[in-house]
């Protein structure tokens, strides 16, 4: 096999984006051969824009799979459907690249991971931000030991401004039944993933404070402050909202050897000449602190190849065994954090990880079933360039 | 009266600092006329350094008060003693400028405030950071309405590095009996005061997570993350530690009209051209956010006159009725936040404000009584220049 034939499941906002770069041959050794969507207008969009391409179009999954026109699928359906669609693809023997989030509740995502393992097929997730050299460098500085043991991970990511008009653009948006959450499930999956990926550890417990419909007429969370504790004693914060402008995106990780801050697309390492624990053991003169160097760390090529980079890596993995940058099984990590933050707010209590997946599912269903939320919606065709 | 004669109660680290600038006549219309301290070596320090000055020295409070050599006192005794010493001074009919913190638990501070009110004398507190034009400007931008309604107040103040050697320099340091707390009571009183002063509001409830002796061999807190909620729905964070280097001092306040950040001794106002609530009402096109201007706000003269500025203001208040920059009665606010953070950690629960002052006192006594903490101490004469 010298190329991977790709089928796309769902050609909404993200599916269209994947279609565009694949049709333009921006992923080498990949060919877009099939698209399935139950919405005829979306298939019309493909016909109108890429009618001359050899993409087979399907309005149902049975025909799509019967075609055998592809080797791998990209799942770009609504959030809730990701695990179900992926599991079906695995059952048909296909490699799967799933859009983020991995799903809406961890139980379904665990089942997806089990299906992937059983199938033996390639399984990736569209964590395109893992291609950003800024976060790769941070992970490098942590995992290589340059920063020393991590002590604090504070991410303030409040620049996800969304107006009421955005929420009103689709009736499914920002509802428990439609999306399964708000800013955590829709805007933050990348940051929740990068938070654990760059620190190279998951918290052991979470205490979160969510505001539901605090800034907008929606039923899900649009403001979150979450505090976490790690096994090694480190602590962390994750602060996010869609209600503030201009907001902030500042991620600070401190460790035994200093601190690293990513802000304004720059990474700075304040590096201690002597690791703090050693300084503390040796210093005998009261006031005093380790000498600190402000180090500008070279980061080349940000923000990286993003979506097409993940797809390229997925294709290379299938063809050449290149390690996956974002293995699909890891999608459960960020979702666990997201679910834990909801659950902690709902129970007004600590949530230990791994979370009780059945309890989360039950409490989510309660919210779906008791929802009386009716929005006046106005369908808008939105440009997702610049979103992730 | 054309000058205020000042007596200093306690000539330890801070009392010496007040002595120095008063002897050098750096506060106009003020004269240092008396000092009392029960430690003879401290009085020797005054004799050796300022023997030629006309300062009367006393080794007991009875003689100090009998001298009637002053019009006002500065209380610079250990933390616990501040309210008791101030109450005694009011009972003798003197004006009082008390060092920070106002006290260690709010019950004693409330009693001090009541004594002050009853006395009718001037009552100030050494919140010297209120003289810093940076924080004055922030308060100005909030109280004048420039920022609009406050939505979030996040202060990361983790640059209070203290080694074990510092804690070992005095047996009373960082013990429940000696100081009544750690980083919150010793290092952070200014920030806790400025936090509420600049935002011009107190939280209504607090949920805090303290690490006690996390980084150092001490029994009190050396690491704190506190989440707060305000009456108007705003939230806030206060993150502090003595265990990190180089640490961070970054205070961000966001509101309806943008956000203000103080970091690296600079204040920046990201100002929205249209207030966010108005933009949200008027915007009809899905994605989109208010136009934002990065405004450099002039701040002249930072860090301001600090301690001598507070003393000058106190003197001017007595002589001319100049309003106090830091009225003594306001010392209870920051202490309430500090006590609430302890209490929330001890009870692993929310604490509503005003706190239950008797419960706090009881829980503090439990810690004092059950303390088995013995430190190997090594008396160090420390230079407090550069501390606050």
From TrEMBL, chains A, B:
GO MF assignments: nucleotide binding
Gene3D superfamilies: Dihydrodipicolinate Reductase, domain 2, NAD(P)-binding Rossmann-like Domain
Domain Gfo/Idh/MocA-like oxidoreductase N-terminal, chain residue ranges per copy: 4-124
Classification via InterPro entries: Gfo/Idh/MocA-like_OxRdtase_N (IPR000683), Gfo/Idh/MocA_Oxidoreductase (IPR052515), GFO_IDH_MocA-like_dom (IPR055170), NAD(P)-bd_dom_sf (IPR036291)
Location of the GFO/IDH/MocA-like oxidoreductase domain: 135-260
Name listed for the protein in its UniProt record: Gfo/Idh/MocA family oxidoreductase
Organism of this sequence: Paenibacillus piri
